[in-house]
Amino acid sequence: MSSATVVASPEAYTKALLHCYRYPTQPVMGMLVGKRLSEDSTAAGSAGQSGAASGGGSSSNCFVSDAVPLFHTLPMTAPSPMLEVAYSHVQYAACTTGQSLLGVYIANERLLDNKVSPITKKMLDALQSRMPSQTKLLVWFINNECLTSPPMGLAIVSLTADRCNPEKGIPLPSQVPAEESMTFGRWNSDTLAPGAPVTEEGVMETVSNALDAFAHYRIADLDDHVEDPSINYLEQPLSALMTRK
């Protein structure tokens, strides 16, 4: 089975982790927004510059430009009214910027729990059914053991929903074969395509700087928005999270 080849922006990666750092003892979920690298020739060409392989319409070849925090109270399942609201909001917001909903990121409640639960798998299958034909739902599994401060290495394993088996544990990011590891690059909002590549060390520095700036105490999700509708959980640039008073 083919693996997920993903190029991620440092901002998307960092925001997904900040959501987990804010709620370290609760199950966390959010959605991933970006561009499938085979959607147009420009994106595919830029993907080659960023070290990602372009491919035939699968989310296994994509650029994740942003992460949208959603839930931190209970493991999300389907059907669920809140999941419907989240899907509609994120899908609409992505379309307005010429992008797509690519997948989700998830983190379990317990430190050593490295499996996708049957409840979460049901939610993933429901979202997969809404993806375009021949497109696989991207899943970022965040390993709680790797959420150190400062970060010592990658904390996310990138795969697709069809590879999430509740009976099998997901390996640590350090145990993932090199060809399946995430790569990083800047997102060019003018061309809507990947830009310059970023090293893993550069991404670790971005996460560390965000933690030093207490950005994890400022990031908000849909659960927070429900409690306070004035909170805009869809638009949270990392730069604003790091400087907001």
Automatic annotation (TrEMBL):
Transmembrane segments: none annotated. It holds the Pfam family UPF0172. GO terms for cellular component: EMC complex. This is MPN domain-containing protein. It comes from Leptomonas seymouri.
